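From the shared-data thread, chain only:
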Amino acid sequence: MEWVMAAGWLARQPCGGRMLARRWAGLAVLLVCMNAPALAQRDTQKPIRLVIGTAPGGLMDVPARLLAEYLDRTGGERLIIENRPGAGGNPAADLVAKALPDGYTLGQIQLGNVAINPFIYKNMPFDPLTDLVPVAPLTSSPLLVLVGSRLPVADLREFIALARRSPGGINHGSAGIGTVPHLGGQLFEQLSGAQLVHVHYRGVGPAVIDLVGGQVQVVFAGLGAVRGQIDAGSVKVLAVAQRTRLKSAPQFPTAEEAGLPGFEFTTWFGIVAPRGTPERIVEAFAARVRGMQHDPEVQRRLGDAGMEVLEETPTEFGNRIRRDNARFREIVRAAGLKPE
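Structure, as tokens:
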């Protein structure tokens, strides 16, 4: 800025000063261009930081590490994963929202960051609809309606009938108040007319343990969290909460097929960038994500984790975020949750 001001002052001087001013102005333009990383071509040798709001080893790490492997294998780019757990992922997403919009700091978020947290946290440090730029979704994972193998029901219709006959007699285990498994149960109640007793745990794992043990009768969770129990026969899948069957487990019916139309609850993981990130950087990284999603080995490993590829353009991903934000405002309100 000082160079530009000096050039402007010299331009007002006599002829010799104007000639020198043109030289200084040219140098000023050169320096501005050299110091505008968001507008310069991105250096593929510089590592990209991907910030995740959960602890290492969780489901969110699966697509992130597959993406890191793919980028290294196909383009020599380094993706460094930075786990920053806590407060529902808000601090991690806030870090991304306030980072330089140069393409070197990105975030991996999930449904809850943009569609649940804004309605259960009183003081959100950022606006997920304006401070984060949608780049690309990575995966989707629908909730499953899970019951213990000893519960005397053969399908979803029988379970709904049992729950209606015994209001307050069916315990619903979740990963905690305001989590996806909790709100999945709330939506199930609204659509089925069943009354469930919510029992919240610190994570879905303990809830599944008590489902197997019979302390709770139903849990709503993704396939990746319960595949072992399903294979062991200790839990039963009554329905998949999306319009299509799971590609990696096509034997399970959709909720509509099982008798509860409209019960659709799919969570997703996706990549976002800070507000102001140039469109060409967003589009370029989105193209790299699409390349990863078409890789057969990546698809297989995601399927093993209970996830499916979710391929959308940045614009389509942004539309999804806004739709989910509007939809879950009503689900959270119906659950009686208020910002704290």
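Residues 293 and 309 are 6 Å apart (CA to CA).
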